Amino acid sequence: MNISLAQPTTRQSAPVIFHVEGISKVYRMGEVEVHALRSLNLDLYESEFVVLLGPSGSGKSTLLNILGGLDIPSSGHFYFRNQDLTNANDAVLTRFRRNSVGFIFQFYNLIPSLTARENVALVTEIARHPMKPEQALELVGLRDRLDHFPAQLSGGEQQRVAIARAIAKRPEVLLCDEPTGALDFQTGKIVLEALAQVNQELGTTTAVITHNAGIAGMADRVITMRSGEITNIQYNEHKLAPSALEW
Ligand SMILES: Nc1ncnc2c1ncn2[C@@H]1O[C@H](COP(=O)(O)OP(=O)(O)OP(=O)(O)O)[C@@H](O)[C@H]1O
Q1: Total structural domains in the chain?
Q2: Which domain holds residue 232?
Q3: How close is the Cα of 102 to the center of ligand 1, in Å?
Q4: Whole-model pTM above 0.90?
Q5: Model confidence at 11, in pLDDT bands (50, 70, 90)?
Q6: Does the C-beta of 60 come closer than 6 Å to ligand 1?
Q7: Which stretches make up the ABC transporter domain (predicted)?
Q8: What would the pLDDT profile of 124-174 be if each residue is shown by its tens digit?
Q9: What's the CATH code of the domain at 117?
Q10: b/e map of 149-183 (b: 16 or more CB within 10 Å)?
């Protein structure tokens, strides 16, 4: 199914950051072919906050992984700021991921023997124009947890360290796959507050995959997928603060 790309967005004057044109992804498992994405078209705009919904197996992670240069489509084209990355080689994709993309996953993948500040510093040491680890941690509300080790932090705090680590290199996009999947309601909201804050303060284009439809209210756009296709795009005229979300 092709969705019109000409609809207005709340960021309608913003330039396109990702242009996805008819991408398909087929996984071959022996004799069996799994069509994870089917001729999908999508534009994402600078600074927008997008929530991706859809049942398990609908292709959300596959799409996010392609956007982030972790996977490549079987056919179609994928552009980042007019640069065609569809057939980019490993060196180009590595540079793209390193300079332009921050990833957040359900599990935080922090290094247990390093403090919050040191976990973030690992990334800032190799980035081009990083912010200071302290600044990144302050942005996610962890100024007073700089010298704590992961084991001394709650799940929500660890996820916020992971967010600080992802944004400290000032990526243009932040791709989040089930960032609150392992967290309870209240803690999940605090993590969403941190993502909203980063989106607002740094203008980082943010895409969040979730099974939780209650999160949709904080997005500029809500994209719903089913069986490898986009079945609906909804525009929120009035975004909700994460604290006002209910699920
Ligand atoms: N590496 C892979 N090899 C084979 N099949 C895969 C692979 N990755 C994903 N798939 C299949 O592609 C389809 C889409 O998977 P994907 O993970 O993108 O869905 P999803 O919407 O993110 O699901 P979930 O919400 O459960 O994470 C599924 O049928 C899945 O089994």
Answers
A1: 1
A2: 45-71+82-244
A3: 21
A4: yes
A5: low
A6: yes
A7: 18-247
A8: 888 888 999 999 999 999 999 999 999 999 999 999 999 999 999 999 999
A9: 3.40.50.300
A10: bbeebebbbbbbbbbbbbbbbbbbbbbbbbbbebb
Q: Is residue 131 part of a domain?
A: yes
Cα–Cα distances in angstroms (integers) from residue 206 to residues 32, 80, 122, 247, in the given order:
34, 14, 22, 21
More confident site: 7 or 169: 169
ipTM over 0.95: yes
| Helix, coil or strand: residue 85 | coil
> How far is the centre of ligand 1, averaged over its atoms, from the C-alpha of 185 (Å)?
26
Ligand 1 pocket member 33 (CB < 6 A): no
25 C-alpha vs ligand 1 centroid, how far in Å?
A: 10
- Measured in Å, residue 52 CA sits from the centre of ligand 1 at 14
Across 32-42, average pLDDT: 97
Closest C-alpha to ligand 1, atom 2: 27
Q: Is residue 33 part of a domain?
A: no
38 belongs to a structural domain: no
Residue 28 domain-assigned (yes or no)? no
